[in-house]
Amino acid sequence: MDKKRLDFLVLLIISVLIITASASVYKYAFMEASPIGVETPYVRFVSGSDAASTIGNNGTYARIENMKGWPNATIVYEDALRIQNIDSNLHSCELMFDSWSGDTSYVNYIYVKIFDTVGGTQQNSTLSVTAQNSTGTFTIPATTTYYVQWEIKWNGNALSTHTVKVTLKLKVS
Amino acid sequence: MFKLATWLVPEFFLFLGIDFFIGLALLTCLMNYFGRVVPYLYEAAAVFGYINMLMSREFSTTFGEYMRFSYCFLYLALALANIVGINAYLLVSKKSWNAAKIFASCVSFPTILVSVFFFSLYGGEASHILTAVLLSSTIVLGIAIAFLVNPEKLKEYFKRR
């Protein structure tokens, strides 16, 4: 191999190393330079009329209290909670199962549905807590409130001492 | 909601400069007009740019954006000056018209165009002026390349007029 070819090979190897290293540093530089700010949430939870709920700061957290179901019968809370889009643009949302605990083996089903009005049109599909799925993506138009309906059914062996805790998460985009 | 990120950090110009220096190192190694040390000098310049980028990352909070932009842009300007310098060297010193015109159209012109484009993108509000500068520099470079392609015919054309 002559000198020129050897030089070129050496330079090429050094070049690849420098470019890889500098691209990696630039990636970090770029990431560090991006500020992460805070904005007011444009989708928030609001208390419904069928169940008492505690709403956290800025409406980004909600805890529905004292919902009860009957053994072998379905109890429906049509307006357990509301999801409100306060923005002037529409937003896509998806209510998803996160976790559940307690006497889960006594539960026949817990369904969560989203409606545009109480008793109105259901948005996308039904979230089944037992199946641990989601409502699928639904779109809330600008400055519109949607209603979260809960349907609870315990099995025949359930006692009044039995409870379950269900946690869901709302994805907003 | 996803938005396209169109902003740039000043270190991008440093990255661009490093790439240009590396390109120069490889090109000068391949061309027969330069000594054996020249490509290694350009490679050293690229390494210097990399160290500069590391320093910039470490002290990004201490240095303001204006200062970061200043030294990053200076580095890029240095890389561009070297590209134009090599072009001039081929043209004036080596009297190699063919090499000069190929270098101008394949290296000098695209690198300046790319640099001005990103500079105008970084400029934001001042982008209108910079776009005008980009367009005029493109025209000037185009004319210059036309001269280089066939200078004799162009001289004849102007003489006739």
Task: Indicate the topology.
The complex is a heterodimer of chains A (173) and B (161).
Chain A: H1 3-33, E1 43-47, E2 52-55, E3 62-65, E4 70-71, E5 75-85, E6 91-102, E7 107-115, E8 127-128, E9 134-140, E10 144-154, E11 164-172
Chain B: H1 11-30, H2 37-58, H3 65-93, H4 97-123, H5 127-149, H6 151-160
Distance between the termini of chain B: 61 Å
Number of strands of chain A: 11
Query: Biggest β-sheet of chain A, characterized?
Result: 6 strands, mixed
Largest interface, with counts of residues having CB < 8 Å to the other chain, equals:
A-B, 22 and 26 residues
Q: Briefly note the structural class of the backbone of chain A.
A: alpha+beta
How many structural domains in the coordinates of chain A?
Answer: 2
Regarding quaternary structure, how should these chains be classified? heterodimer
The Cα radius of gyration of chain B reads: 18 Å
Mean pLDDT of chain A: 90
Main traits of this protein?
heterodimer; A: 173 residues; alpha+beta; Jelly Rolls; 2 domains; six-stranded mixed beta sheet; three-stranded antiparallel beta sheet; 1 helix; 11 strands; 18% helix; elongated; B: 161 residues; mainly alpha; flat; disordered N terminus
